Amino acid sequence: MKERFITGLDIGTAYIRVVTGQYNPQDGNFYIVGCGEVPSAGISKGVIVSIEDAVSAITAVLEQTERMIGSPIERVFAGISGVHIVTQESKGVITVSRANGEIREDDVERVIAAAQSVATPPNYDIVHVIPKDFSIDNQTGIKDPVAMTGIRLEVNTQIILGLSSQIKNITKAVYRTGVEIDDLVLAVLANAESVLSKRQKELGVALINIGESTTSVAVFEEGDLLTTSVLPLGSNHVTADIAIGLRTSLDVAEDIKLEYGHAVPEAVSKREEINLSDFSETEKETVSLKYISEIIEARMEEIFDMVDKELIAVDRSGLLPAGVVITGGGAQLPGIVEVAKNRFRLPASLGYPLNINTAIDKVNNLSFTTAIGLAYWGAEIMGNQSKSILSKLKLPSFRIKSIAELAAKGKKWIKSLMP
After folding, report:
1. Nearest to 86 by CA among 157, 158, 155, 171
2. pLDDT at 301 over 70
3. Are 115 and 91 contacting, i.e. CB atoms less than 8 angstroms apart?
4. Fewest beta carbons less than 10 Å away: which of 14, 17, 52, 219?
């Protein structure tokens, strides 16, 4: 087994999580050997608002993981999220340069680079350029054009962009902990690698990651990414609604949600009540659990309705055979699957990590799926190192060049500021 560790760093609003493992080239499996989890600091709605606090929190979780694996972490695959993430489609066109018209890997690189030259919004940088399909001389729907023959090569791509300042802030915060960034990955895409099967992506599926203050969505069909978005609502808004409805503090509301919360009022008896004094000495009121459940259901329906608007935008509302897969810390609420089935009119399930090889029970959890996905992403790159350029593209896509260049420039700039 190779000694090098592959590490995924999930920088979330509530927690920062790390998963570290090793890729075994003999059996092609990835083995998770360490993990860490600390409360976030300096992060709000998926973006960094205080570099110093974020550096302290990231350092703490890396040290926690290093103690578990008994080795220093030198490189990470870091996740990026936040409502600043936008997507757009782009097309690239080139002429095949060889006299015999045979398409080689460098032609694939050139046509994707042509798609990447699309005009981007001001102050935005490209995070991913994901090829969806190719066309050769008007023959459409080609997945791998290498070794085919033609004169005109086209590609349809999905381009994911992030605010330049936020990309630089994340790279700066990570570099200041003393580790390198192997790649910066959209968190929900990495998440999909840990919870979605190839068959689900082929049939058509929507992945919904419910975080502390944002909900990320990725829609797949025929193995391709159709759209992705980050919505400004999360599990913390459920807590806030309970606090308002019960006229109590956020801490009490969070404890009630975790201990008694249920998203389906019909599953809760009208007679069941709790005394708020059990959670705080200053509270004396008795409230109905059914009333709390109604508050939770209303907010979850609002979140799912916002997700359904994203499905409507790509004409997939109620039309995904593999349904919706819900993951993230906010997905642990009882009854959430039933609410999703009713709102989406589709099959729904919880997204637990797939094909997980580890003796650590803690990581087999909805909260760790993004960190696991980031580590899987790195393992996939290592597994594809000897394969064609397109096989590397289909999972990690062609964003490696642009992000690597950006990270290198950011690293030089940061080092120049250090005493």
Report:
1. 158
2. yes
3. yes
4. 52
Cα–Cα nearest to 83, from 191, 232, 198:
232
When pLDDT is cut at 50, 70 and 90, the band that residue 117 belongs to is confident
Whose CA is closest to 382, among 19, 130, 17, 22?
A: 22
**Closest to 225 (Cα-Cα) out of 139, 325, 298, 158:** 158
Each domain of the chain, given as residue ranges in start order, spans 86-162, 197-351
Q: Among the CATH numbers 3.40.640.10, 3.90.1150.10, 3.40.50.2000, 3.30.1490.110, which is that of 86-162?
A: 3.30.1490.110
CA-based R_g, the chain, Å = 23
Q: Which of 144, 136, 337, 152 is nearest to 223 (CA)?
A: 144
Beta 29-39 vs 357-358: how paired, if at all?
parallel
CA dist., res. 399 & res. 126, Å (int): 8
Which pair of tokens denotes residue 253?
């509301």
What is the pLDDT at residue 73?
Answer: 93
Residue-level pLDDT at 397:
42
Helix (H, G, I), strand (E, B) or coil at 109: helix
The fourth-level CATH superfamily of domain 197-351 is ATPase, nucleotide binding domain (3.30.420.40)
The mean pLDDT of the chain is 88
pLDDT at position 97: 80
- How far does Cα 162 stand from its chain's mean position? 14
